Amino acid sequence: MFFIVGLGNPGQEYSSTRHNIGFEIIDSISSYFSFPSFKKKFDGLVSLKKINRYEVILFKPMKFMNLSGDPIKKVIDFYKINPKEKLIVFHDDLDMDFSKLRIKVSGGHGGHNGIKNIIKYIGLDFVRIKIGIKNKYYSDEKVSADKFVLQKFNKEEILRVEKLQKEINNNLQYIYENNFSSFINNIQIN
């Protein structure tokens, strides 16, 4: 059973913001693979489906980003998931250029409060798929990080996010196979 989580903040005012790209990825996977409607459970929104031979849980914690760990731990405990082998977390990364992807198999939080809270509840060993959100405006204008992450994507960025979502969906099987290098190498959004 694979447990795929997207990080974000609940509430309409945060919809489509840079910080919520994890939620956007989960919604895209749900739509692409025709998951059942999300149900409120475990302080979040959850949906389960079998894709090929793999049981998959999609999850969006509905507490704020920096409180994501407790809802994720509830799902892990209920389904007896080994986070080291089966938890994949999609989240934004302000230190990476927009739409770049990086996979980190374990380690620290890198300044991301959502990841920091997850580590508090389940430890360091789980897969993170970081999606870069830094752009020229952020670099040049010296906007504060807390304001920048809560801004919505511009039109050009929305098109790139949509392409990125499509590429993630087309290559998701590599995640199930723990073939992270093929997952990253096959995603082309230029």
In short:
The chain is an alpha/beta fold and 190 residues long. Helix content is 39%, strand content 27%.
Polypeptide structure, described:
With 190 residues, this protein is α/β, with parallel strands linked by helices. It has one domain: 3-Layer(aba) Sandwich (Rossmann fold), CATH 3.40.50.1470. Helix content is 39%, strand content 27%. The protein is built from nine helices and seven strands, in the order E-H-E-E-E-H-H-E-E-H-E-H-H-H-H-H. It has helices at 21-32, 69-79, 83-86, 113-122, 136-141, 145-148, 155-170, 173-176, 180-186; strands at residues 2-6, 39-41, 44-51, 54-61, 87-97, 101-106, 125-134. It has a seven-stranded mixed sheet, with helices on both faces. Helix 2 (69-79) packs parallel to helix 4 (113-122). The model has no long low-confidence stretch (mean pLDDT 92).
Question: Which percent band covers the strand fraction?
Answer: 25-35%
Mean pLDDT: 92
Number of strands: 7
The shape is: globular
The termini sit apart by 33 Å
* Secondary structure tally, helices: 9
- So, the CATH homologous superfamily? Peptidyl-tRNA hydrolase
Helix/strand-derived class? alpha/beta
Look at the structure and give the CATH class: Alpha Beta
Number of domains: 1
Spatial order of the strands forming the largest sheet: 2-3-4-1-5-7-6
- Determine Rg (CA atoms, Å): 15 Å
What ranges have pLDDT less than 50 throughout 5 or more consecutive residues?
none
Helix content: 25-40%
CATH architecture: 3-Layer(aba) Sandwich
Determine the CATH topology. Rossmann fold
